[in-house]
Amino acid sequence: DPDIIFRITGWATEAGATECCGLLFGSRDHILSAERTANVAENPRSFFEIDPARLIAAERAAREGGPGIAGYFHSHPNGNAEPSPTDAAMASPDGRLWLIIAQGATSCWRAVECGALHGRFDPVDLEPVECGLAMAEQDRH
User: Fold this and answer.
1) Does residue 20 carry a pLDDT above 80?
2) Beta-strand (E) ranges in 38-131?
């Protein structure tokens, strides 16, 4: 769906001062869809935690042939559109995408070992395609 970013930005706007969050479905190099999930963090104005029950269900569905989890998204209502040190501490270096929305801006990052940002994230360019968003890794040099 080429309107994925538009939809996620709308969810972030609806969430206001609370961080919205959710799952990105597809593959390592292609986001096909997004799903907003509950933010169950103790302080959702400053942190996000995807509802663990929904995450487990999505992982199980992927193992059973459903859409794979390409990554996650969340908003920074009072920040900028890049991962924070807290995001880096939470992220596993599993190659999944982290899409971040803040004040109308959007950025995408891949969680990796020894990333360019906070030692955990490398930037990824998003390219709209007919059935979603394709990834184009940025040159780290």
Assistant:
1) yes
2) 69-75, 97-102, 105-115, 119-129
**Is 127 considered catalytic here?**
no
Q: pTM to 2 decimals?
A: 0.90
Active-site hit among 14, 19, 82, 127: 19
User: What's the rounded Cα separation, in Å, for the pair 43 and 107?
Assistant: 23
In this predicted structure, the answer to whether residue 19 has a pLDDT above a threshold of 90 is: yes
Q: Cα(28)–Cα(114) distance, rounded to whole angstroms?
A: 18
CB 96 within 8 A of CB 124: no
**Residue 16 dihedral angles phi and psi, to the nearest 5°:** 60, -125
CA angle 110, 87, 132 (to 5 degrees): 40
Would you mind telling me the total number of residues written for the chain in this entry? 141
- Please give the single-letter amino acid code of residue 7: R
